[in-house]
Structure prediction request, 260 residues.
Amino acid sequence: MLNGKRILVVLPAYNAARTLRKTVAELDCHVVDDILLVDDSSSDETVQLARELGIRCFLHDRNYGYGRNQKTCYAEGLKSDADVLVMLHPDYQYSPKLVPAIAGMVASGEYDVVLGSRILGGRAHKSGMPLYKYVSNRILTLIQNLMLGSKLSEFHTGFRAFSRRVLEELPLNRNSDDFVFDNQILVQAIFFGFNVGEISCPTRYFPEASSINFSRSVVYGLGVLGTSIRFRLQRMGLARFGIFEPKNPELRGDYYTEVN
Prediction:
């Protein structure tokens, strides 16, 4: 708990058995009130290990994608009494030790969304980020800042904290089930006027850390540009798109079960 706010960490997992224990071990139990894991039909022992660690766990009946995994994380997370929800990859790429810092910025009431930026501090490429990913990250971020009127150091980090109100109000279920969900939720937050902050976050690149290949990265990049264009068109009153409409349709819940 921070500033009287309850903190929930959500872990969108896929084949994370080799890194899950280490990730959970570095979470500060004096700050984190609860942990919730959603498994996107892994082929390894992620679910068994999560239960061994005492983590609430939900299992998809098949592999739906990273975006759908997050939708389940937030849908179930909002059923708890958490005030701040922190999304952390269980692949140990982002430092669990920074959860108090990123959650604290939201719990302070100064920010609605906080991102753990790999770019702030200038350590991303030195930490092993592939050159093509670093270059594309910088180019896409520049384009998005120009089109959205924002000043973020990056839009593509997988380490974020949200206030409860953000997740209740954004139309998340209209977003993609794939990786571009990550970008869409940030663009939505900017569109609806939420305050977005950043902290510097070192990252690790190693075989067990999840990563998308070059072709999937291209698809993601095109999705990012498409989202930015839709944002600009709607802001100019030239078109309307569901992802920027406030009503949030309910996500059907028959595709996953809680693991007891």
Q: What stands out?
A: The chain is about 35% helix and 15% strand. The radius of gyration is 17 Å. The first helix runs from residue 17 to 25.
